[in-house]
# Entry
Amino acid sequence: MKLRMLSVTCALVLTLGACSGGDEKSSPDPKEPNKGDAGQIVAVNPLTGATMKKTPDNPVFVVKVDNTPASAPQENIDRADMVVEETVEGGVTRLAALYYSSLPTVVGHVRSMRATDIGIAKPVRGQIVASGGAGRTISRIKKSGITIHSQDAGSPGLSRDSGYAPYNVVVDLPKLNKSAKDLQPERPYFQWADSGAPAVDGPQVSSASVAFSRTHTTNWKFDGKVWKRTNGTSDKEFGAKNLVVLWADEKDAGYTDPAGNPVPETVFDGSGKAVVLIGGTRVNAKWKKANSASTIVLTTRDGKPLQLPRGKTWIELLSKSQAGPVTTK
# Structure
């Protein structure tokens, strides 16, 4: 057997040889390791707060996925543990899909990395999977200690399908994982609530529109269980138990894209306002992240701790200078 450390918050993880399967289930206490039917200790998923029957034999892969009609359909986004939507040049967005408990054989379509991805990947020691990236961005990401797997560099598992470049790169994560270093997460992405925590207070809503810029808004619908995009391009949409909207500082990344558009960098640390949709309940909140590698801490606007229910989460990472409001009904 082997011992792995997720963090004091996520608990010590002991994976026994008799364990099998990777299905998640709720845990009575995220601070303590849980025991399965056979008495074995199980692991805690830092991206969802749920328990797993065994620790995955892989790191967290952060796959950069195009979010424009040119690369549609997005493939296997629904199997990610968490997704972060971020602003790129021209006011459009790109996804960072985080995979830990499940590794699909096809994820795409894969696009280039951004410096914003440092703050997305570092809390869980994520390894970035991308088609490539600007030289200064690659240098910064490597300097931050993050592993990069890119199609431009010939990383295994990345290939092109029958679409047209640059919108046709896909990744086979199990194949990539064969040569990836198994760096396990050390802390939870959010502070996760106990399974018996009381429900949060707030107005009940069933739709949301998140304006990233004048040219892009992501629309959402709550189906009674999870939030799903209504204007996404995925073959099967990601179901988010928690939809977390964060406003963060933005700066110029220092270069332009081939069309001459300046590339923005959303700085994913510090603090700001937030809107958190927990099921059908809207909570106006605040967020704080001490540094790029820290756990995100949420509080209500009056300073009370706000822990997320365990489950899949989608983060809308907005620029304070570009983004519009979040409209809910």
